[in-house]
Automatic annotation (TrEMBL):
Localization: Cytoplasm
Amino acids binding ATP: 185-187, 195-200, 271-272, 315-318
Name this protein carries in UniProt: Glycine--tRNA ligase
Organism in which the protein naturally occurs: Pseudogemmatithrix spongiicola
Domain spans labelled Aminoacyl-transfer RNA synthetases class-II family profile: 4-334
């Protein structure tokens, strides 16, 4: 079993400004998290890569940004009002609450080595259904006619805009619509840091296809999505497909696979993305509830039909957590007593691309370093640091996951060159100051496993 790194990660995330607990000075809000200066850059990089791969690099997927608040009937049509619930059990003895279908993953608060129900004092109630949607009121009157929901998934904003997008863009089936946005679920048992939270971001794509061609598209998307995770640098042996069996399969789904990632420790392999064949369920439901036709007219073939939908749904926060877990390593440094902590992010995902360090605060070094940092900032996120021992400064950037350290020393001002130090193997190369942007850009484009000093011929 891989070691449990979540605890180390939670403290590093706070110390270095990746992730803070929400409203911490008030004692925190249950399972809601804030992204700090490094975290927001990391998550934005993840979202940008998804958007590029899913929308910009394809001519058969269009982007959308639908509102969080929707007509309440949307959630009746989608089945969320009646069915988006988890079975909840209470323990009368210790007052703890659990998801009845996840008891095997839970701990008895009185005896953490046991599962709820296994300890002699446990008094579990019968399960009752608890709806996970957050309710609020639209307008000044707080009555049942004004109830709206915070969306529990972004997908419905895509379904209700299917014809708007198709007609505006004149896309032909098969084509997709993608969006990134917040979703809210009043989870019974949130936890494991940002793995399961009550407010999170989803990156979802619905691909509309002709019935009968759905399984072929499903297989293609399954593979494309696994490849996307691999290209982020997630280790192959930490990823697996999990197929939903009959019991797990949602009533509307024809097939569903999760992409699971090994978070290590007791959490182990868990879902980070779902790839689903949703049939024509959603569009048919919205047709019925809205009484508006949601058919696609295939003029060339002279036929009309309600398309089937292949959905890919990934949590931006959950995949960011997977990237952090995958990246974190604590290792010995040859010839040094103290080891180091490294966030070995793919350079393209790293919140800061380069640290710029004058070796000393004299002899024109800070001036040259500041000039270089200013030039680099036009292209990349750069951190300038002139305080403390150089080894210390490198270590701080190793923890932030910064792939390149650029040092200006006594020779730099005379020769107009600098040292680039590589985070992963700590190798160094000497390059002309005017070549730095070019060299770093080359490494950012390269596969990250080769983005080290060994590349330099
Ligand atoms: P679970 O069974 O774990 O509750 P789910 O199967 O309901 O999850 P989906 O509705 O398929 O999840 O959501 C798609 C993706 O959204 C998930 O793979 C995950 O990455 C993300 N996600 C879902 N719920 C949460 C949450 N509470 N916190 C963070 N991310 C979430």
């Amino acid at each position: 079993m891989r070691p449990d790194v979540l605890e180390t990660l939670v403290s590093l995330a706070k110390r270095r400004g990746f992730i803070f607990q929400s409203s911490e000075i008030y004692g925190g809000t249950g399972s809601v998290w804030d992204y700090g200066p490094l975290g927001v850059e990391l998550k934005n990089n993840v979202k940008a890569r998804w958007w590029n791969a899913m929308v910009r690099e394809r001519d058969d997927v269009e982007g959308l940004d639908a509102a969080i608040l929707m007509h309440p009937k949307v959630w009746e049509a989608s089945g969320h009002v009646s069915g988006f619930s988890d079975p909840l059990v209470d323990c009368k003895a210790c007052k703890a609450r659990f998801r009845a279908d996840k008891l095997a993953d839970a701990q008895c608060p009185r005896k953490p080595s046991k599962k709820p129900g296994e300890h002699t004092d446990c008094q579990l109630t019968e399960p009752r259904q608890f709806n996970l949607m957050f309710k609020t009121f639209m307008g000044p009157v707080e009555d049942s006619a004004a109830v709206v929901y915070l969306r529990p998934e972004t997908a419905q904003g895509i379904f209700v805009n299917f014809l708007n997008v198709q007609q505006a863009t004149r896309q032909k089936v098969p084509f997709g619509i993608a969006q990134i946005g917040k979703a809210f679920r009043n989870e019974i048992t949130p936890g494991n840091f940002t793995f399961r939270t009550r407010e999170f971001e989803q990156m979802e794509m619905q691909f509309f296809v002709e019935p009968g061609t759905d399984m072929e598209h499903f297989e293609r998307w399954k593979q494309a999505r696994l490849d996307w995770h691999l290209a982020l640098g997630l280790d192959r042996d930490r990823l697996e497909f999990h197929q939903h069996g009959e019991k797990e399969l949602a009533h509307y789904a024809r097939a569903a696979f999760d992409i699971n990632f090994d978070f290590g420790g007791s959490l182990g392999f868990q879902e980070i993305e779902g790839v689903h064949n949703r049939s024509d369920f959603d569009l048919t439901q919205h047709q019925q509830f809205s009484t508006k036709k949601l058919e696609y007219v295939d003029q060339a073939a002279n036929k009309r039909y309600v398309p089937y939908v292949i959905e890919t749904s990934v949590g931006a926060d959950r995949v960011t957590l997977a990237i952090m877990v995958n990246a974190l390593r604590e290792e010995a440094v040859p010839g040094e007593q103290e080891g180091r902590t490294v966030m070995g992010f793919h350079p393209a995902l790293a919140p800061i691309k380069a640290g710029v360090f004058p070796l000393t605060k004299k002899d024109g070094q800070p001036e040259m370093a500041e000039r270089l940092a200013a030039a680099l900032r036009k292209k990349f996120n750069v951190f300038y640091d002139e305080a403390g021992a150089i080894g210390r400064r490198y270590r701080r950037q190793d923890e932030a996951g910064t792939p390149f350290g650029i040092t200006i020393d006594g020779d730099s001002t005379a020769n107009n060159d600098v040292t680039i130090r590589f985070r992963d193997n700590m190798g160094q190369i000497r390059v002309g100051a005017d070549k730095v942007v070019e060299v770093i850009a080359k490494y950012l484009e390269a596969d990250h496993k080769t983005a080290d000093s060994a590349l330099v011929g």
